[in-house]
Design a protein that fits this description.
elongated; about 45% strand; 29 strands; alpha+beta; single chain; 29-stranded mixed β-sheet
Length: about 650
């Protein structure tokens, strides 16, 4: 009984093994059938599918004459297509974007099964590719809504042959039209030679690369390219990280052009017109990021060197750069057209001190970054009191801050911060600068007439698309003080309206000096109008104060300075000192004495006549401006208030 019960399970075991083995063999058989089917798939049936898929991908009709394979059975077949036409998008117009007589591609079937179309061998014969971009930047080689992360798949192409193929480029944004043959073979490698026009001038583009025959696709791939035109000569030579991997490469570059704006036609970085450029550099491209390991050369007579990184993060461009210029001329930052426009403006409105530098940041809405800069020597065609300049520029979501600004002058320096906020409305400019270590004689250029230590504070803010527009509507203050100097005695007498002393010293001792205790010009700005609060001067022999205004919209000056002598004046000058003109060309009327070191006898007689008539009450008209002469001037308090 026991023996029979134990023998039964042993008889059932073979049936389970048969079922299991049968299932396994069935699965293997199905898999084998599928593998055989994949290896012998009739690709000719795919012509319609290829047309529909390509049409959907490019948004344009695609026509394929035939699809064949090179062997009856293979897991890496060579698929050939003939008579391929990809039409141009509707916005381009009639014609073909791509036209191929024949193309062959070796495709690993298993990679294709998992969604990776990575051919390793490609042969093209009888092709024509017409690349078109309009002025707005719309391009036929970019699919609608295409973004990408800039990295993509690593290269897999080990063999490429291209014969009898023409490339045509019509790029309205770059004003570039070129056409020429493209070939790739085992002997000469890659060759492209195209001719046409760039910015209306003849251009020739040459590009070369290593051979693509039995190579390791991930090995460094050498390339070189030149663009030669009167508008721009540019050359690059380097290595891609893999065959035709334009997303990852390093290169040495050179560029010469009549203006930086012509180079921008190629690199599209938003650059502006300048004087002629001659640049060299070393760059790297990694996905969507750029590394400028070295850049230098000249723009006009300016010389500079630097480095930078440009990253694409969350849809924004982030720049980190350092630039140093042994010498720099701000006039080099405008081309001939810019200088002509500036000359036309000056002819129309006259010369200006406040620059028309554009501060509108609307085109930099997606750009952030930091640029540290230093200029060792500032050049200017007509000379300048500025010697060096350094600072740090930071841009963050359309807020531009130039911090740690230090500008050295012939004597002293200017330091502070500038800020442009363009997050909403018109750009808002804020300026906070301090002057220190300057001297009056270096600013005025007449050391034999006046001297003294100068300090200043400028705190202004306003709105406008340019610096000039913003300051024309500015509020705040602008103050300058001078202390511990000397002033010519004749000037002090005129300031104190001491006619007898002025005449005596103008004739007898025109070079005699007296102490300058202080000069305080403390202006308050309201909507671009500067009003002195106060404008005062204290010398060893006189005290004076002023009234009037400076209008920054037009830079017009209208100031009057009147005073009194600290000693008894036998005869007072009838008229005060008048300061007019503009900031770029001020005029001074010193009671008819003029501005010469030794006034003419005729001028003295006119002043004497008017003063005598005023003294005896015979003047028919009162003075245009009446300013009560000050009894004294508190230099210490006025200087401290001006510099706060």
């Amino acid at each position: 009984m026991i023996a029979s019960e134990t023998a039964a399970p042993a008889k059932r075991a073979p049936r389970w093994r048969k079922i299991l083995l049968g299932t396994v063999f069935t699965i293997l058989g199905v898999a084998a059938s599928l593998l055989l089917a994949l290896g012998a798939f009739p690709v000719g049936m795919m012509r319609g599918l290829v047309e529909s898929r390509l049409s959907a991908a490019w948004g344009s009709p695609v026509r394929v004459g035939a699809v064949t394979r090179d062997s009856v059975f293979s897991y890496a077949p060579v698929i050939s297509v003939r008579d391929v036409h990809i039409a141009q998008p509707d916005w381009v117009g009639p014609g073909d974007f791509v036209r191929l007589s024949s193309a062959s591609v070796r495709v690993p079937v298993f990679a294709l099964l998992f969604g990776h179309f990575q051919p390793d061998r490609v042969t093209i014969d009888g092709g024509r590719i017409a690349l078109v971009r309009d002025a707005s930047g719309r391009a036929n080689w970019k699919r609608e809504g295409e973004q990408g992360d800039g990295h993509g798949d690593r290269p897999t192409l080990s063999d490429l042959t291209i014969t009898n193929t023409q490339v045509v480029v019509r790029d309205a944004r770059r004003d570039l039209v070129v056409a020429g043959p493209l070939s790739v073979d085992a002997r000469n490698g890659l060759r492209l030679s195209a001719t046409g026009t760039l910015l209306g001038t003849p251009v020739r583009i040459e590009a070369t690369g290593g051979r693509i025959t039995g190579i390791d696709p991930a090995a460094p791939y050498p390339f070189s390219a030149t663009l030669a035109s009167p508008a721009l000569h540019m050359a690059a030579k380097g290595d891609m990280a893999g065959v035709l991997d334009t997303r990852h490469f390093s290169a040495a570059i050179t560029a010469q052009a009549p203006t930086l704006k012509n180079l921008d036609r190629v690199i599209e970085a938003g650059l502006f017109g300048t004087q002629p450029i001659d640049l060299t550099g070393a760059i790297r491209h990694d996905g969507r990021d750029w590394y400028i390991d070295r850049i230098g050369g000249r723009v006009g007579r300016s010389r500079f060197a630097g480095l930078a990184t440009v990253h694409k993060i969350d849809g924004r461009t982030k720049i980190d750069a350092r630039i140093r210029a042994p010498q720099f001329d701000f006039d080099d930052l405008a081309d001939a057209r810019g200088h002509a426009a500036s000359a036309a403006r000056s002819a129309k409105i006259g010369p200006r001190v406040i620059p028309p530098t554009r501060i509108n940041l609307s085109k930099l809405g997606k750009t952030d970054g930091t640029i540290a800069f230093r200029v060792d020597r500032i050049l200017a065609g007509k000379g300048t009191v500025f010697r060096t300049l350094s600072g740090r520029l930071t841009l963050d979501h359309r807020v531009l801050t130039v911090s740690n600004v230090v500008a050295t002058l012939a004597t002293g320096r200017m330091a502070g911060t500038l800020r442009v906020d363009h997050r909403s409305g018109r750009p808002k400019l804020s300026v906070d600068l301090r002057l220190a270590g300057l001297t009056l004689d270096s600013l005025i250029g007449k050391p034999d007439m006046v001297s003294g230590r100068v300090q200043g504070r400028i705190v202004l803010s306003g709105q406008g698309d340019t610096v000039r527009e913003a300051l024309a509507r500015a509020n705040g203050k602008a103050a300058m003080v001078a202390t511990g100097g000397e002033v010519r005695r004749m000037v002090a007498d005129v300031l104190g309206q001491n006619l007898s002393g002025a005449v005596l010293h103008a004739i007898g001792s025109p070079s005699r000096m007296v102490p300058l205790r202080c000069l305080v010009a403390d202006f308050r700005a309201t909507n671009g109008v500067l009003v002195p609060r106060p404008l005062g001067i204290d010398t060893g022999t006189s005290v004076g104060r002023g009234a009037g205004r400076i209008v920054l919209d037009g830079e017009r000056i209208a100031l009057t300075l009147a005073g009194t002598s600290k000693s008894h004046a036998l005869l007072k000058i009838a008229d005060p000192i008048q300061i007019g003109g503009t900031l770029s060309k001020p005029s001074v009327s010193v009671a008819g004495l003029g501005t010469t070191d030794k006034p003419s006898s005729g001028g003295l007689l006119k002043v004497l006549g008017r003063s005598l008539r005023r003294a005896f009450g015979l003047a028919r008209t009162p003075p245009a401006v009446v300013i009560p002469p000050p009894a004294q001037f508190d230099c210490e308090s006025a200087v401290a208030a001006a510099l706060r």
